[in-house]
């Protein structure tokens, strides 16, 4: 069986994290979102994988190359314009040319290995993974009878059930024949195949899937992924007097300095420099080649590759994109925040800051709860900031 | 990373070519040593600490068989040598094996085997398998397919770790055994033969029907087909899959060319070159140079030997070392160095730079330098290559295999290695305050992000490259640390796009080459916020007056560039000393896109080879 992953989208609502990469490449729990999907597929013996790429596709290609490092054979299909999931699938099918049933998945969802297994084994000509959502009106809502889906209603204003489609399907090899040139959404094609008498079953899952729409969703998915950490692994470069509680997984070449106190689940990448006397309270993920200076106190954070947190910073519920640098004693405490994202107000109870790639924040600056610092922005010392656009300089 | 391949056929010949061709196709997984075993009535093993081409010469045209196994390696730890190259065999030479991965419990197993009197010839974990299998086979009453299969299962059950293993047993012609655990392995099914390989690339010439082995799978292959089973001997059914795509395209990972793929590997190459070498506490720079501190402290002059792109890296190295350490550095073309033999040289440190470590001119220069009493440090990518082996110390750039003929990521890796060397010397000779050094280290660590940002300008650069692609001749200008980058930009453009290109120091243009400037000769000028900015600016104004289109590569905060040139490529702000990295990345993209616009064969430019092994 082969799989087609839809990975061409930009993910505007996740800016500034998607300014430099497609949504699927945002690192969560130590690897890009889509890598977790690829791993789940390979764990089910599905190695022939076609990635439909578009927006900043070189990020995906440079990461996976030919897939060898994951035991997969990865091919790429380029969707030049992001016209919709139906179109993306048609593009993917041209490259994949499946001879048997295949899976199609969004590359930007969190999925478990078990979810894939259940879908592979499902009955019916077509199958999809369903789940219950507290906000069904944002998804395709399912009308079902038993395990058979009768219709998918795309983003209804008054949903009749909480059962939604995850957009993850198992489809027959000739499915491409149902897609016409003006089909943009996959849901339309699927509804038409149901009308033509094909049976679509749904496989309900709980806690095995999560959509990522806004930056703060990443902290939740990070938590889910880190919960799978079982053991503590510390590198040889760990100094005496480092205390760990719960699973803490640290990559090779990373120096953990004396007096540091790490409460798992924590994953730290390779060649980092942590401490001395750093407190990290999980869930926390730190990428490769990053530095956390002395006396910093971190809680529920995601620091991506090549980040720098200088002496005495306090960061809670905060995301630092790759290459972001914080001067000494920068603080980002957690608290309630309101966002206007793409014309929609979002109330978040508990968020620190989201700091874009290669941004710089000067010493003693306070980032308010919900602060968003744009890509490549810089903030001088001793400021209090909330919104800084991409490339802006706060002097 | 390694590549393995095995074949069993019903013929008595043909395995040699299939294995060697397969190895060549696996070379993208690594190519610092290779070996092949041809299994007939007896087993002949050939190995070399070199590329497959060398192995091919060694095997010759007469040796052949119907069955065999082969291996190509990319060493990440420890030098490759003939002894450590695969295939490995047991005491009697009856079992031969190739392996990709790590047998984690090998030291325990090895000790027990040695206590039982087994003789080990290599330091590898792989050899343990051969001896274990030997013991299991020796315990059999009769070595037939069924018994040997059971013995193979018992052998595999003793191993912990990650492995893809393919092995054969003398006396059982026409049979290969294989096992997979967390390392890639597939089987190819063809008429009258069965193959194993790390990657479909190696078998696709012979068959498009493949079975992907899963972790925990064991296999017996005969010319007629494949039998899969688990560790308890229970048969496993796996349906063959048909490969319908172009394998070479797959290796390029979605890019049109290896060169572009490798340009995008640049940020990673920088991270890998610096990984584990910079520390915030003394010694800040930790390099295994094979020289003690006293020796490093005593270095009073440096001679850099290199060719082509490596020579340009060496020129940057000269500037950086002279600036930070204050000792004189001479950079010589490897091919010319030997001829100045009458000059009396004071022995010092010679640094030989070669990506492949096999560049014949640099090797000859290195030997000459040693004979003149220099201590030789080499900067190489390929672990255990000839230049690396013949040097007193090696600074590996750790860039991974580079396939495109035009060096790109390895150039960035070489620059990083030379920055590290300069930092180390500055540190140990105390020529820089520790705080300045620490700032420089942080700056260097941040350059992978800067190069990453340059790569995001690919589309803008492509638009400008399309203009340059129309020209027959092009000039590159730079001063100080960007002068070698002007040379490198010109070299890249000429080698892949076949546009005549020259690099000049900004000040030199008016001493002759000015006569060549016309509105049809684009000029690419490299600017940085350094002490020579205003000098470069006036050079550009002089150029502009002769009518050429001027392309400027400069940093983000330069506010004057638009007034100076017609087209501007901006790279992120950084210390002037690190601009070679950002500007080189921009020029690599510029050359690539110019060549692409002209429809050139980018990965294999005419008349050129990746590693120049003739003088």
Structure description:
The complex is a heterodimer of chains A (395) and B (615). Chain A contains six helices and 34 strands. With 395 residues, chain A is of the alpha/beta class. Chain A folds into two domains: 2-213, Alpha-Beta Complex (Spore Coat Polysaccharide Biosynthesis Protein SpsA, Chain A), CATH 3.90.550.10; 226-394, Hexapeptide repeat proteins (UDP N-Acetylglucosamine Acyltransferase, domain 1). In chain A, the strands form seven sheets. In chain A, strands 14, 15, 17, 18, 20, 22, 24, 26, 29, 31 and 33 form an eleven-stranded parallel β-sheet that branches. Chain A has an eight-stranded parallel β-sheet with strand order 16-19-21-23-25-30-32-34, with no helix packed on it. Chain A has a seven-stranded mixed β-sheet with strand order 5-4-1-6-11-8-12, sandwiched between helices. In chain A, a hairpin with a 2-residue loop joins β27 and β28 (344-351). In chain A, α3 crosses α5 (186-195). Chain B has 615 residues and is α/β, with parallel strands linked by helices. Chain B has three domains: 2-249, 4-Layer Sandwich (Glutamine Phosphoribosylpyrophosphate, subunit 1, domain 1); 252-454, Rossmann fold (3-Layer(aba) Sandwich); 457-605, 3-Layer(aba) Sandwich (Rossmann fold), CATH 3.40.50. In chain B, 36% of the residues lie in helices and 22% in strands. The interface between A and B is large, with 41 and 41 residues.
């Amino acid at each position: 069986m082969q799989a087609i992953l839809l990975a061409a989208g930009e993910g505007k609502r996740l800016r500034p994290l998607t300014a430099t990469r497609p949504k699927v490449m945002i690192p969560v729990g130590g690897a890009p979102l889509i890598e977790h999907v690829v791993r789940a597929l390979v764990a089910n013996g599905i190695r022939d994988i076609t990635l439909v790429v578009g927006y900043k596709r070189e990020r995906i290609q440079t990461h996976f190359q030919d897939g060898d490092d994951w035991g997969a054979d990865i091919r790429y299909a380029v969707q030049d314009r992001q016209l919709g999931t139906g179109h993306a699938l048609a593009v993917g099918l041209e490259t994949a040319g499946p001879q048997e049933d295949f899976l199609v998945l969004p590359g930007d969802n969190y999925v478990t290995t078990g979810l894939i297994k259940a879908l592979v084994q499902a009955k019916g000509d077509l199958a999809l993974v369903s789940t219950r959502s507290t906000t069904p009106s944002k998804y395709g809502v399912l009308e079902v009878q038993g395990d058979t889906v009768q219709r998918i209603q795309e983003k209804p204003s008054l949903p009749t059930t909480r059962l939604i489609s995850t957009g993850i399907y198992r489809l027959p090899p000739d499915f491409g024949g149902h897609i016409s040139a003006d089909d943009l959404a996959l849901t339309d094609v699927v509804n038409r195949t149901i009308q033509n008498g094909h049976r679509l079953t749904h496989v309900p899952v709980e806690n095995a899937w999560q959509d990522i729409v806004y930056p703060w969703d990443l902290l939740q998915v990070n938590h889910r992924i880190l919960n799978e950490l079982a053991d503590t692994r510390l590198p040889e470069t760990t100094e005496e007097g480092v205390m760990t509680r719960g699973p803490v997984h640290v990559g090779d070449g990373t120096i953990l300095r004396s007096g540091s106190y790490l409460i798992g689940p924590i994953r730290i990448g390779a060649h980092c420099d942590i401490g001395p006397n750093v407190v990290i309270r999980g869930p926390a993920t730190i990428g490769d080649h990053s530095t956390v200076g002395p006396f910093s106190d971190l809680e529920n954070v995601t620091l991506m590759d090549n980040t720098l947190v200088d002496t005495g910073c306090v960061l809670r519920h905060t995301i630092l994109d790759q290459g972001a640098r914080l001067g000494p004693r920068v603080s980002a405490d957690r608290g309630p925040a309101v966002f206007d994202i793409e014309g929609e107000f979002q109330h978040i109870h508990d968020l620190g800051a989201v700091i874009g790639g290669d941004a710089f924040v000067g010493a003693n600056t306070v980032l308010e709860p919900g602060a968003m610092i744009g890509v490549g922005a810089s903030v001088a010392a001793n400021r209090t900031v909330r919104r800084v656009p991409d490339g802006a300089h706060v002097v | 990373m390694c590549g393995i391949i095995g074949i069993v056929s019903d013929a008595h010949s043909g395995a040699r070519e299939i294995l060697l061709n397969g190895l060549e196709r696996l070379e993208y997984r690594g190519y610092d040593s290779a070996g092949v075993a041809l299994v007939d009535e007896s087993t002949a093993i050939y190995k070399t600490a070199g590329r497959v081409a060398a192995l091919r010469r060694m095997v010759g045209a007469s040796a052949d068989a119907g069955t065999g196994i082969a291996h190509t390696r990319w060493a990440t730890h420890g030098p490759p040598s003939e002894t450590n190259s695969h295939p490995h065999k047991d005491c009697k030479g009856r079992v031969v094996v190739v392996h990709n991965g790590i047998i984690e419990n090998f030291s325990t197993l090895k000790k027990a085997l040695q206590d039982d009197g087994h003789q080990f010839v290599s330091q590898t974990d792989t050899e343990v398998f051969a001896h274990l299998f030997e013991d299991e086979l020796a315990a059999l009453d009769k070595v037939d397919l069924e018994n040997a299969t059971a013995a193979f299962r018992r052998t595999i059950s003793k191993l912990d770790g990650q492995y893809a293993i393919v092995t054969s047993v003398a006396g059982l012609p026409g049979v290969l055994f294989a096992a997979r655990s967390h390392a890639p392995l597939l089987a190819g099914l063809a008429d009258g033969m069965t193959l194993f390989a790390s990657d479909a690339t190696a078998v696709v010439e012979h068959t498009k029907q493949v079975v992907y082995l899963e972790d925990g799978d064991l296999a017996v292959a005969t010319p007629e087909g494949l039998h899969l089973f688990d560790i308890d001997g229970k048969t496993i059914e796996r349906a063959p899959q048909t490969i319908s795509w172009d394998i070479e395209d797959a290796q390029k990972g979605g890019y049109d060319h290896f060169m572009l793929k490798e340009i995008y590997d640049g940020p990673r190459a920088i991270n890998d070159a610096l990984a584990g070498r910079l520390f915030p506490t003394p010694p800040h720079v930790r390099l295994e140079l094979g020289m003690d501190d006293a020796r490093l402290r005593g270095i009073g002059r440096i001679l850099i030997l290199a060719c082509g792109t490596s020579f340009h890296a060496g020129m940057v190295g000269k500037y950086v070392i002279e600036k930070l350490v204050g000792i004189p550095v001479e950079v010589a073309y490897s091919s010319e160095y030997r001829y100045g033999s009458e000059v009396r040289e004071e022995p010092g440190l010679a640094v030989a730079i070669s990506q492949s470590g096999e560049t014949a001119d640099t090797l000859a220069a290195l030997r000459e330098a040693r004979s003149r009493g220099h201590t030789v440090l080499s900067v190489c990518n390929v672990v255990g290559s000839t230049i690396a082996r013949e040097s007193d110390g090696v600074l590996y750039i750790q860039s991974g295999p580079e396939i495109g003929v035009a060096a790109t990521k390895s150039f960035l890796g070489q620059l990083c290695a030379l920055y590290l060397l300069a930092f180390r010397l500055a540190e140990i000779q105390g020529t820089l305050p520790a705080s300045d050094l620490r700032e420089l280290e942080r700056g260097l660590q941040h350059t992978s992000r800067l190069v990453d940002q340059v790569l995001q300008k690919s589309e803008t650069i492509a638009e400008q490259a399309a203009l340059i692609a129309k020209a027959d001749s092009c000039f590159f200008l730079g001063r100080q640390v960007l002068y070698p980058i002007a040379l490198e930009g010109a070299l890249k453009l000429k080698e892949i796009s076949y546009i005549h290109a020259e690099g000049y120091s900004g000040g030199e243009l008016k001493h002759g080459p000015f006569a060549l400037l016309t509105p049809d000769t684009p000029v690419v000028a490299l600017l940085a916020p350094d002490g020579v900015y205003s000098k470069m600016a006036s050079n550009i104004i002089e150029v502009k007056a002769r009518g050429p289109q001027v392309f400027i590569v400069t940093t983000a905060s330069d506010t004057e560039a638009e007034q100076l040139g017609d087209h501007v490529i901006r790279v992120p702000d950084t210390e002037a000393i690190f601009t070679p990295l950002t500007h080189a990345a921009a020029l690599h993209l510029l050359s690539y896109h110019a060549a692409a616009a002209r429809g050139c064969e980018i990965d294999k430019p005419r008349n050129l080879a990746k590693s120049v092994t003739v003088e």
